[in-house]
């Protein structure tokens, strides 16, 4: 990404990059039109109490959580990358749900509203 490239070039050149080079690199990254994708799970809770309780547990487990949806009852849990020896993100999510007394149920809708 842009930060990695500029850091590398700065270190190799033992000084700051010329403004024109930084602008050209920035324009190139924007023109490349890359979109970064991350895995996430949407939890549709039945109440604000459930939402708040689950959010606290998920954040305590180190997961990134966003609130969304009509009425604000849905949580979007951003799943971290799986690393060697790390617990699978889905397993961690299910462990937090179970610890809070919730059972995950997959939504079988075929489209996203």
How would you summarize the topology of this molecule?
Blueprint: H1 2-13, H2 19-32, E1 40-44, H3 48-60, E2 64-68, E3 74-78, H4 89-99
Antiparallel strand pairs: 1-3, 2-3
Give the biggest sheet.
Answer: 3 strands, antiparallel
Provide the low-confidence segments as ranges.
Answer: none
What would the principal axes of the Cα set say about the shape? elongated
**Fraction of residues in helix:** 40-55%
Mean pLDDT: 84
Strands, count: 3
Can you count the helices?
Answer: 4
Strand content: 5-15%
Describe the structure.
The chain is an alpha+beta fold. 44% of the residues lie in helices and 13% in strands. The protein has 4 helices and 3 strands; from the N terminus they run ααβαββα. The longest helix has 14 residues. The model has no long low-confidence stretch (mean pLDDT 84).
Please name the defining characteristics of this protein.
3 strands; about 110 residues; alpha+beta; 3-stranded antiparallel beta sheet; 4 helices
Question: Quick gist of this model?
Answer:
The protein is an alpha+beta fold and 113 residues long. It is built from 4 helices and 3 strands; from the N terminus they run ααβαββα.
């Amino acid at each position: 990404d842009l930060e990695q490239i500029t850091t590398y070039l700065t270190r190799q050149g033992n000084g700051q990059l010329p403004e024109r080079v930084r602008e050209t690199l920035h324009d190139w990254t924007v023109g490349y039109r890359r979109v970064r994708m991350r895995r996430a799970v949407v939890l549709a809770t039945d109440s604000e109490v459930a939402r708040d309780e689950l959010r606290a547990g998920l954040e305590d487990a180190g997961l990134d959580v966003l609130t969304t949806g009509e009425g604000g009852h849905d949580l979007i849990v951003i799943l971290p990358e799986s690393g060697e020896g790390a617990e699978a993100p889905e397993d961690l999510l299910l462990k937090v749900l179970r610890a809070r007394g919730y059972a995950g149920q997959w939504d079988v809708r075929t489209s996203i509203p």
